[in-house]
Hints:
The protein is α+β, with helices and mostly antiparallel strands. The chain has helices at 35-39, 44-50, 82-88, 160-165, 167-170, 186-189, 218-224, and strands at 2-8, 11-18, 21-24, 55-56, 62-63, 74-78, 97-101, 106-107, 122-123, 126-132, 148-155, 158-159, 177-178, 183-185, 196-201, 204-210. The strands form 5 sheets. Strands 1, 2, 3, 4, 5, 10, 11 and 14 form an 8-stranded antiparallel beta sheet that branches. A two-stranded antiparallel ribbon has the order 6-7.
Amino acid sequence: MKVASFVRNGKARVGVVSDTGIRDVTGLVDGARDLKQLLSVPGWQDRAAGASGPVVALDEVSFLPVVPNADAKILALGWAYRSHADETGHKETEFPMFFSKFPQALLGHRQPLVKPAISNMFDFEGEVAIVIGKTARAISEKDALSCVAGYTIMMDGSVRDWQKHSVTAGKNFDGSTPLGPWMLSVDEAGPHDAFELQTRLNGTVMQAAKTSELIWSIPYLISYC
């Protein structure tokens, strides 16, 4: 199942994506009005699939970040792939290095990026993003995938010169990081270690990676956090 956050008639909504558009299920599944609330409902997928909201064409909505909540906890992994570490000469560390992404940095699909006026070093990296659907505090690596609701993609916007002074500052300029367009539920996403990611600029492939090449596995990263 594909689930998106979007704006319709000036209001934030949540809906199920299909070939015909987005079925607006806002308020129809135990009153859930956003993705976070929807994921907290037992059996949310079956409930959302059976909801009979209006269908809106994709080109008639404005996408929000998949997770639009102001209280979202977003952790991003630095030096995720072996190929990137080798390319830059970065020595692998014993433990993963995370930095925070704040909700103010996020954008929805097709929304205009905000280029910082103070820098000409605005850069991008494509990333797989894991959407946690239930409390995962102190969870073991063995059980980690049980808390995953789905996956999406993120363009990790980076202001490189600021990043040299402070990773957190360089990674959190407002409107620098698109997240989406939607979340793909874990049952349809396939094995977590078999994803292939491409980042393209004007049709040219700039980055290609596989989650099988991650230095640390997705279950380990969840358990670490």
